[in-house]
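Predict the 3D structure for this chain.
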Amino acid sequence: DVLGVDGSKSGTIYFGDKPTMNSWLQKIATKIQSLLAQMIQMTNKLMTKDDHIQLMCWVYERISTDENNPVWKEKFLALKAADVYLFDVPPMR
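Done. Predicted structure below.
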């Protein structure tokens, strides 16, 4: 699935072969990591050193159900100083 900034999903992407898929996904992952690093750097310029963000990334939260079938939900994680923040969508401000 492809996730938008607001957490929306745009659909499933299919590839003709595995090497094409791996190349495409690697390029997207590299771009996302670069943009997140840039966002961290820009945000940290506005904060004191003690409040600097250390990491921002997408993770999955395991939600237990009554049937013992775990459900996984996408979350946006931010580590700041000694705090851990989980968001349904990335904070935009």
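The chain has one domain: 18-87.
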